[in-house]
């Protein structure tokens, strides 16, 4: 049966439950002004709400579930559908020869059209449409529909959410249990337009909170602009490296628990492409000895970005050194001699040295010293003594 309301000048329907009617939950025909608010409209055989020739209809903060068709307006009706939760209907909203604004609603689990417009005008903004199966929003060529600032996610057949919209997981608290509040860190937080939005959300919370209106029926208490917190370490925290090839260790967390991506730069001007977040990366420093800084940016699902950096000194140029045997004497009568040693390095400094009589067989590396005892091979006149000074690290 229908719940038919016809010919009244003003109708207000609040805080009711309309369920399991054979055809229509609420059928409004000809009322001048109608407000349908805070009702549960569920499991009606055809229409949840049907309005015909209704020049001022406001449908807000209703829970509209498991109907064949959620809301239909026709016959030059003018309707605004705000802050409603649509869950599990076949079709969400339909406009026939009417004007229909659909703002700040959450649509999930629809099996048919989410919205359809025939010979109509419409504004579709700030809505979440998620986990629906069929075409999202359609209109015929005689209709004019503005679509923007929506989040369309995980629908079998998707559509453009508008130039300022997104296609990202809205991070509901618990979709399976029908809890369509936004979780902390949801990309929908603070990302909607303030144009045409109600001043409270579907449960009466003030809107906006923090930095802007949230997409969907819920205005959450969370700040939508918190970027990830992260760190970068070059070569395990080493102070120096003798190679431009380095290994980076990354770590980042976000209030959403999702760090979506990262990118890198040697100069904070030229960045790599965004790539999936991971905890390690090989990275090439720019050439030329000196202090190098590597920058990383981490991004969350709401496109909030943080920047971290680490430094390391690149030192490729070898030390220069000298060796003097027996104070520079031309001859010695004993193979035991004193070596005088000196070495300098413009980078990390000189840390170790090793010695050889033949350039092939070397001592083990040892701490640098300005003098050292040494035994020449016999005959001394055929010996060759070489110094090889090495770097730290
Ligand atoms: Ca907000
Ligand atoms: Ca809320
Ligand atoms: Ca965040």
Task: Describe the fold and architecture.
The mean pLDDT is 92. This protein is rod-shaped. It is mainly β and 393 residues long. The strands form eight sheets. It has a seven-stranded parallel β-sheet with strand order 1-4-7-10-13-16-19, with no helix packed on it. A seven-stranded parallel β-sheet has the order 2-5-8-11-14-17-20, with no helix packed on it. It contains no helices and 37 strands. The chain has strands at residues 2-6, 10-14, 17-19, 24-29, 33-37, 40-42, 47-52, 57-60, 63-65, 69-74, 78-82, 85-87, 91-96, 99-103, 106-108, 115-118, 121-125, 128-130, 137-139, 144-148, 151-153, 172-174, 179-182, 229-234, 240-241, 245-253, 259-265, 275-276, 280-284, 290-300, 305-314, 320-325, 336-344, 350-356, 366-367, 371-375, 386-391. Helices cover 0% and strands 47% of the residues. The protein folds into three domains: 2-182, 3 Solenoid (Pectate Lyase C-like); 229-314, Immunoglobulins (Immunoglobulin-like, Sandwich); 320-391, Immunoglobulin-like (Sandwich).
